[in-house]
Specification:
single chain, about 140 residues, mainly alpha, 6 helices
Length: about 140
C-alpha cells in the first residue's frame, strides 16, 4: 500500500522538529560570516574583465576546507559544532558555485575564452588547493 502524501509530510515535519536547533544555529552563524566575507572580498578585488573576487573566494575557501579536513585526517579532534560552523557555515557561504556559474556566463558574452579560462582556474585550482591544504595540514600535524 502506498503511503498517503500527508504521511510523508508528517514524517518530514517530525524529522525537522527532531533536529538540533543549536547545530542549525552554528551553520547559520557561520553562513552569515562567510557570506559577508565573500562580499567584502569581491568588493576589495577589482574585477573589470574577470571575476577575480569570486575566483579568490573559491580558491582560498577550497584550500581552507582541505586544511580543515587534513587536520581531521591527521587525528585532530574537531567538534561537530566546529565543523558545522567553519566548514558548512563559513566556508560553505564563502565559496560559491552559483556565482561562479553566472560569472562564467556573463564574461563569456564578450569573450568565450574568458569563460573557459575562469572555469579551468577555478575548478582545477580549487581541487588542487583543497588537496594542498589537506596534505600540508596533515603533514604539519603528523
Amino acid at each position: 500500500m502506498m503511503p498517503m502524501p500527508s504521511e510523508g509530510i508528517n514524517k518530514l515535519l517530525t524529522r525537522a522538529y527532531c533536529m538540533d536547533l543549536r547545530l542549525i544555529a552554528f551553520v547559520a552563524a557561520g553562513g552569515a560570516i562567510g557570506a559577508v566575507a565573500r562580499y567584502l572580498l569581491q568588493q576589495w578585488i577589482p574585477s573589470d574583465t574577470m571575476p577575480w573576487g569570486t575566483m579568490a573566494a573559491n580558491l582560498v575557501g577550497s584550500f581552507l576546507l582541505g586544511a580543515m579536513f587534513g587536520a581531521i585526517a591527521a587525528g585532530s579532534v574537531l567538534s561537530e559544532e566546529t565543523v558545522l560552523l567553519l566548514g558548512t557555515g563559513v566556508l560553505g557561504a564563502f565559496t560559491t558555485m552559483s556565482t561562479f556559474a553566472v560569472d562564467a556566463i556573463r564574461i563569456g558574452d564578450d569573450n568565450p575564452s574568458n569563460s573557459i579560462t575562469m572555469a579551468l582556474i577555478t575548478v582545477v585550482g580549487s581541487i588542487g588547493l583543497a588537496w594542498v591544504g589537506w596534505r600540508l595540514t596533515a603533514a604539519i600535524m603528523a
